[in-house]
Amino acid sequence: MKPKIIDFPKIHDPRGNLTFMQFSDQIPFEIKRTFWTYDVPGGEIRGGHAYKNQKEIIIALSGSFDVVITNTDGSIEKYSLNRSYYGLYIPAKTWRHMENFSTNSLALHISSDSFSTGDYLRDFDEFKILKDV
Predict the structure, then answer these.
(1) What's this model's pTM, rounded to 2 decimal places?
(2) Annotated catalytic sites, by residue?
(3) What domain range is 61 assigned to?
(4) Which CATH number do you get for residue 21?
């Protein structure tokens, strides 16, 4: 499976809109962990890694930022997240980083696995070898 945008349900209401997600209607994995990134200083980059097994969905709950996917052939795909009802699904073995954070942006990360340092691939050359296997 490749990275893709998931369009979550949006309930329109004059008092304010509501969006929800639930396994297995919108989330293609059982949620084991959530975390969020915020207060990212201008010009900073987050991420710069892949996971061996973990799948993830990233949502811009507030503000905007770009998620940049680098494929093993060096080609790049950029996803601009700026709506709280869109999530970017990122399968395991996908190299990514986040950049171009707006002021007060808030990124929610929904993960298929609990935290494990052993699941991280932080060296792009190691990632290319694993990806080709």
Answers:
(1) 0.93
(2) 49
(3) 4-132
(4) 2.60.120.10
